[in-house]
Write a structure and sequence with these properties.
With 531 residues, this protein is an alpha/beta fold. The protein folds into two domains: 7-279, 3-Layer(aba) Sandwich (Rossmann fold); 306-529, Nucleotidyltransferase, domain 5. Helices cover 37% and strands 17% of the residues. Strands 3-4-2-5-6-1-7 form a seven-stranded mixed β-sheet. It has a seven-stranded mixed β-sheet with strand order 13-10-9-8-11-12-16, sandwiched between helices. α14 (375-388) packs parallel to α15 (415-427) and α16 packs across α18 (503-515). The longest helix is centred in the N-terminal third of the chain and has 17 residues, at 23-39. The chain is elongated.
């Protein structure tokens, strides 16, 4: 028997078989490409670095220019990117480059021929995890495939669970939702990338209980971990502990640990920064864009202040569109009546808050039927109240897209069908229904409403008439809690004084989340076109 061939020579044979090219030529091509990937994200702020970055993008797939074409030097980002620490924690704001940079790193590591040569290995196992499998696929799979030059893909990517991308260099990228960390078990892990760690149901147990053994495989270099995200102000305690623990180890001189922090300011445009500051409530803006740790306790509508958000000067503007909001509960059955108004609708004799925005949401009336809130009665009461207020304009209906089908007998029709019938009978062509295809996430709905109650620039964009006593109770008394799954949910009581709570603000929240979303807006559909 002859001497065993080195791992690199074996890999060259594999490259020749897979690509039809001379193996050494492929390795040099890989080396040049990986260097271009590094050059396109400058690690120094010099004209030469910018020229090199521009030239590098010209030889890479178009996705690199799309993501990094306007990528400016950022000192803390550069430190995080070049860190040699085994354990890296990155706490940063939204759209600040933390995820884009990690995608580039994942591709680099899956292609870098020098790693395989230095470690005498023919495969490199890279695991990428987000809180769920769907998130992992939606946010990473297509981008990673697009960032890898087609000639370096070994076969077609696998989109089944778990997703897998193989490269001719020997990289194996496995994308696995961390709601089931077992998806990433069973193989060594040379590099572990965990995104949105604050939202992971299992928190630090993903690393400590499930994946740590895979990071220490005999015959391989110690596996690295990069944990990154934006700290959630409710559910992110374990990510905070991880960041603080790794920072402490770094400060104590342990070179295996490193912590990096930066905000979105100076990375996103000044216009986008200001837009988010006027749209988001103070805590959400602080957490998501300033990357600050802010706690609001467990109040759902923590931005509501009776002294600022409740005013008797509110009145209905007869020709301005009216908005009816429904939650489809039965005990109680509820609805709210709103308008989008302007300070121009009022005179100097009217008392409005000092920090009122030029345009705001006015909560003018409510329906609250404690014991018999079937859909026809709630809709009829809302129509009658609108008539009493003297409204003459168009009427738009929003609410829970589920339609409350379980709350109406099959022979009578769903809540949405009752609403459509009664609304058309009362208002004719002035009436229309605006419902999402699916309900927004609870956190997105709460953030949107809090952003209207008070934004990060301290502007008030929602006022409530004092006659809406039950709605005011909702704003002051509804709390949130964390489910066993880790998800944030609204506390709902089945008995006691709180059993009547949440439904008015839930219905109102469906409208606000649709028209003033805290993040990317999803489309609305008219119920007459099919719900």
């Amino acid at each position: 028997m002859g001497r065993p061939r080195s791992a690199l020579l074996v890999r060259i044979d594999e490259l020749e078989a897979n690509s039809g090219q001379a193996g050494q030529a492929v390795i040099e091509d890989l080396r040049r490409t990986v260097q271009a990937m590094r050059d396109c994200r400058p690690n120094e702020d010099t004209p030469a670095a910018r020229r090199k970055a521009k030239a590098a993008l010209e030889i890479l797939p178009p996705k690199w220019a799309e993501i990094f074409g306007r990528y400016d030097y950022h000192p803390t980002q550069a430190q995080a990117r070049t860190s040699q620490a085994r354990y890296r924690a990155i706490e940063a704001g939204r759209r600040s480059g933390k995820t884009a940079d990690r995608k580039a790193e994942i591709v680099e590591r899956a292609l870098d021929p020098d790693w395989f040569q230095a470690n005498g290995l023919s495969q490199r196992f890279i695991a990428v995890g987000l809180p769920t499998q769907q998130q992992t696929r939606d946010l990473y799979m297509d981008d990673l495939v697009s960032l890898i030059p087609r000639r370096f893909l070994a076969g077609e990517p696998r989109y089944s669970d778990p997703q897998m991308i193989r490269t001719v260099a020997g990289g194996r990228i496995k994308l696995a939702g961390m709601d089931r960390p077992q998806r990433a078990e069973g193989e060594p892990i040379d590099d572990l990338f965990l995104d949105e760690v604050a939202d992971m149901r299992l928190g630090r147990a993903v690393i400590d209980r499930h994946l740590r053994p895979s990071l220490s495989t005999r015959g391989r270099p110690p596996g690295s971990v990069t944990a990154y995200g934006t700290t959630d102000m409710v559910s992110g305690s374990e990510f905070i502990e991880l960041c603080d623990g790794w920072l402490t180890r770094q400060q104590d001189g342990d070179s295996e640990y490193a912590y990096f922090h930066w905000s979105s300011q100076g990375i996103i445009s000044d216009e986008e920064w200001e837009r988010q500051r006027t749209q988001l409530d103070p805590a959400t803006f602080a957490v998501e864009y300033e990357a600050r740790r802010v706690s609001t306790g467990d109040l759902a509508y923590w931005c509501f202040r009776r002294a600022e958000n409740v005013t008797p000067s509110l009145r209905l503007i007869p020709d301005t569109p009216a908005i009816l909001c429904f939650d489809w509960n039965v005990r109680p059955g509820t609805a709210t009546i709103l308008q989008e108004q302007s300070i121009e609708d009022y005179t100097t004799a009217d008392i409005l808050p000092e920090k009122i925005s030029d345009d705001f949401t006015a909560v003018l009336g409510e329906v609250f039927l404690r014991n018999n809130g079937q859909a026809p009665r709630v809709v009829g009461a809302a129509i009658q109240k609108l008539r009493e207020l003297g409204h003459r304009g168009t009427v738009l209906a929003y609410g829970d897209p589920a339609g409350g089908a379980s709350h109406a007998a099959a022979t009578e029709g769903t809540c949405l069908e009752h609403l459509r019938k009664l609304g058309r009978e009362a208002f004719g062509d002035r009436f229309s229904m605006r419902f999402r295809k699916s309900a927004p996430a609870i956190v997105a709905r709460l953030n949107a409403v809090n952003g209207r109650l008070r934004s990060a620039d301290e502007q008030i964009r929602m006022l409530v008439h004092p006659s809406c006593v039950e709605t005011i109770k909702d704003f002051e008394q509804v709390h949130i809690e964390q489910a066993k799954s880790g998800a944030i949910q609204i506390e709902k009581a089945t008995s006691g004084p709180k059993k009547d709570r949440t439904h008015l603000t839930d219905g109102l929240g469906y409208y606000v989340a649709a028209e003033f979303p805290s993040r990317t807006r999803t489309g609305l559909v008219d119920a007459d076109l099919g719900v």
